């Protein structure tokens, strides 16, 4: 009986296998039918023929890239060529250190010496991982396939590109030896920051010869090409080190190095020694920014859609991956295809801006461990007639540089009170407030403090801005709401607005990370441009090696603020320059100007942002590793830099008044600005400069004669901010004088600054935007110091109030004695360890 049952089971299994094989055969035949009759066979054959022809026409010179790129200023004068170490000599296989080969094979392609260009098992593993993980979690490309992609293909993710890549790889393996392919590969892979090939990377990062690299340094360099942005050794060295250790582990497991060699290499500290040519040092800040803009311009040509905020973490991660891949591809093109990049950079203005930064900070000679000046400055200047960047300085000049961080667009710091016009007052002017609206300046529970713990009762918005009164900004922002105020920044592409920023403390500059000088300059330029935002750039066009124009900039203006609200804000900011915290920066020759100071906790960051009808300039001063600087305020070194530069570039220009805002009452909330034109046209015509300099055109709606593409303006939900109706404004007027500065805003339990402003002739501006706890620190560590990441996001603490005094030693009951600050502009921009901390005063 048992034998019959066993035989029956075997019989069923036999027929099951027969049916299963028939099913598989049907699937295969169906697939083949679809392949042939669906047109795929013809496509694949065409791709194979193209691959064969490409490789057939190649020789070894095909894999020796030409890397010279040229950068021109606004007058067509050559600024620089790609740095000499980026044009490093091509390295023959026999001169390549063995560790480079073994490291790359161990991490990128273990079967390199046995496959025919394609590792089918690796491709199947990668496909399986995609199905299981729902994303690309491991690669299936061999070194030969990567070479094929780098030399012949773009970054498209179509099946056609992948098939063509496979065919090219197979043809390369037929024509060239494994050593040839490895030589081609190591001379063409990208090592970030414009370095192509191992020779360029070696000289660029370690300033030495290939033969002098040790095992740890070699593995470190081999970490970068997998994802040049993510493993950028300048910006993300911790990522690079982690992958270096993985490579060393693989080499040990493959038997290429011993355990002792592994342990020694893993424990070695990597110290970069970046070498730059004299030309590169001279124009480093221009180069880094210009190539960044040019790379993104080529990405735009590829159809890439830039995003700054995301619905989820996964959405952001996917975007970052696609951005990094295309950025690396486009940057490679810039350095390898002989482009000519034409910019709006004015070298005369660039020199003046750099000189202004260097002169103002000349007395600060302390340096960091790597020899860089400890106190740094950054500034950006924009031409208001078109929105282009004309000068950008990312730090102080030195006789040497270690691949200088361009702080002007790569660092984000607390903005202090300089943020108030952007997220508090201009939005308020869109919601029924006017410069003459009054607010009760008083001490209240849960709110900030003013300098000297002095309050004025009912004051106008105009007076509150001029004297930078924190309690007024706080109350108005509560009415406007952080949700509304921060939306304006997001619509102007501020890149670091996070959930924890949605607190009232951001009214005083208390952000988790902060803003960059470039972002601040473009935002203030938007105010000058009647509320129309233009994405900042310095690249006007790009021409390829065959003299074909491959990119032309077409600035698009996006509505951010209403025209009347912007003009109201400008009018108020002229009072800051005349009678308020910015009066030391008032320009010569009666050139009308508008601006705002800003200083953060314990004088760790100082800002001055302002504009004329001609130019907008923002200035930041502080330390890369945030620390207090006793004499630093927005009205000290930042204002000095701003004034020196703006006086220089406005010399000989006709003074132009700002256009008046429409005097409206009830109708204003409906945004009916049409009655303005009749009143302002005569004044506008009178102010047109006779030399044709950067004046606004009569069409005020298009904003200063800039190139405007009205058809491309974004829809309201993309470009305009939501508005709220102010409620409960119980205001009376008080015009009492006296400079009270700006203090308070501590959101910790120690309260606000009460430092006295002992000299009422010198306005103070202490921005205590405390969002933190009583022990200091930042959002990452509530008990530690300010954040010290690459972005320089100082977030402060709330234990000490900065004082404002021209006589020295201004003291406060919760502050510290920081000593004689003339026209002080200090305060706390602390942060909290959690969003809850940030909303707790």
Summarize the structure.
The protein is of the alpha+beta class and 841 residues long. The protein is 39% helix and 8% strand. It has a domain at 61-336: Orthogonal Bundle (Penicillin binding protein transpeptidase fold).
Determine Rg (CA atoms, Å): 31 Å
Helix content: 25-40%
Kindly report the oligomeric state of this protein.
single chain
Strand content: 5-15%
Architecture overview:
It is built from 26 helices and 14 strands. The C terminus is likely disordered. The longest helix has 36 residues. The chain has a domain of 276 residues: Biosynthetic peptidoglycan transglycosylase-like (Penicillin binding protein transpeptidase fold), CATH 1.10.3810. Helix 17 packs across helix 22. The strands form four sheets. The protein has a five-stranded mixed β-sheet with strand order 2-1-3-9-10, with helices on one face. It has a five-stranded antiparallel β-sheet with strand order 5-4-14-13-12, sandwiched between helices. It has a two-stranded antiparallel ribbon with strand order 6-7. The radius of gyration is 31 Å and the shape is elongated. With 841 residues, it is of the alpha+beta class.
Topology:
Layout: H1 2-37, H2 40-56, E1 70-72, E2 78-81, H3 98-108, H4 120-133, H5 143-152, H6 159-175, H7 178-188, H8 197-206, H9 215-222, H10 237-253, H11 259-267, H12 278-282, H13 284-301, H14 313-336, E3 340-343, H15 347-360, E4 375-383, E5 389-393, H16 407-410, H17 420-429, E6 438-441, E7 457-460, H18 461-466, H19 470-480, H20 482-491, H21 517-528, E8 532-534, E9 539-543, E10 549-552, E11 557-559, H22 563-579, E12 594-599, E13 605-611, E14 615-623, H23 637-650, H24 674-686, H25 716-719, H26 835-839
Parallel strand pairs: 1-3
Antiparallel strand pairs: 1-2, 3-9, 4-5, 4-14, 6-7, 8-11, 9-10, 12-13, 13-14
Helix pairs in contact: 2-6, 3-9, 3-10, 5-6, 5-7, 9-10, 10-11, 13-14, 15-23, 17-19, 17-20, 17-22
